Amino acid sequence: MIKARKYVVKKYFEGVPKRDDFEIIEFVLPALKDGEILVKVEWISLDPYQRAYNRQYQLPYDQFGYQIGIVQESMDNNFPIGVRVVSHKGWFDYCIINPSIPDATGNKPYILPDLKGLPNSLGVGAGGMHGATAYFGFLEICKPKPGETVVVTGAAGAVGSLVGQIAKIKGCKVIGFTGSDEKVEWLEKEIGFDKAFNYKTVNIPTALKQIAPKGVDCYFDNVGGEISSQIINQMNLFGRISACGSISAYNDNPTKLPKATIIQPSIVMKQLKIEGFIVWRWGDRWPAAISEIVDWIKSGQLKAKEHITEGFDNLYEALIGVMAGENIGKAVLRV
Fold it and tell me: What are the pLDDT tens digits along the chain (335 aa)?
């Protein structure tokens, strides 16, 4: 008999999630059925989308999210005891998974890819969904050319920091916008951005005109809102915009979203391409992308920084830290 714990969301979030929106429930796991596996969770991913998708689930619901766990018992020969599994099961310390059943993302759990000696935690970061998001969202949609100017917002986050480094690998000039001077310094001195700005303390149009007088060719948008309008209105003819997220509005009332400067004149006159995406579009190509990302990390071309929180009981605080922008790089929790 194994006792497990999980976080259940019992209230829809109003603004920033509150502690009493969650309840930690202890329960006894049942015996395995054919095709199921028992997983001891080791790593849990913390991400802004866990706030954004809150109202798409019926209350109460188990808090969703990516996790990595090691198989303790198995009734599925494809997932033997001892292998590590990546799934979207969520905030559990132990859980039962049926790998043949797609999860809420429409995808099935999978065995942790070969990270070639890198930390297993990267399986919910640069070696997993976030790496694939940066890789495909930037390369497939923006299609960067050497010498082009790329702007990334949310540049010190899990995806943005990877996008900027991939852009540098592809020979681009990279400008990042982030939320603190500490992050600016990290972007410029540690991972090679050509220039970074604290969006809270600079005039964005002025800063862009100074650092990119010939305009912006590619924009990877993690934040939406007025910042994005200001960047889009300084893009070049046939510029490309990859719309990945809208962090700036995730905590706002969904019926009263903030207004931003109109962008349609720039879209039309500069013939811009804006494309949103869900990374599972390229699901069949993830293995090749992750293998290349791992090789870049191993060679020193790319750095995959992690912001690690310890302890299952600290999951709520870890999520709030992500929503407040406290993390540099990928936020993960070691169970």
Answer: 899 999 999 999 998 999 999 999 999 999 999 999 999 999 999 999 999 889 989 999 999 999 999 999 999 999 999 999 999 999 999 999 999 999 888 889 999 999 999 999 999 999 999 999 999 999 999 999 999 999 999 999 999 999 999 999 999 999 999 999 999 999 999 999 999 999 999 999 999 999 999 999 999 999 999 999 999 999 999 999 999 998 877 776 666 777 899 999 999 999 999 999 999 999 999 999 999 999 999 999 999 999 999 999 999 999 999 999 899 999 999 99
- Domain containing residue 265: 129-279
Helices (H), the chain: 49-52, 129-139, 160-169, 181-189, 204-211, 225-232, 264-269, 286-299, 315-323
My answer on whether 28 and 119 are in the same domain is: yes
Both 21 and 113 in one domain: the answer is: yes
Q: How, if at all, do strands 216-221 and 149-153 pair?
A: parallel
Instruction: State whether 109 and 140 are in the same domain.
Output: no
Which of 203, 200, 237, 204 is CA-nearest to residue 218? Answer: 237
Neighbours of 91 (CB within 10 A): 28
Residues 134 and 265 in one domain: yes
Looking at the structure, do residues 163 and 48 belong to the same domain, yes or no?
no
Number of structural domains in the chain: 2
Angle subtended at Cα 94 by Cα 89 and Cα 100, rounded to the nearest 5 degrees: 45
How far apart (Å, rounded) are the C-alpha atoms in residues 184 and 71? 40
In a domain, 295, yes or no: no
Is this prediction's pTM over 0.90? Answer: yes
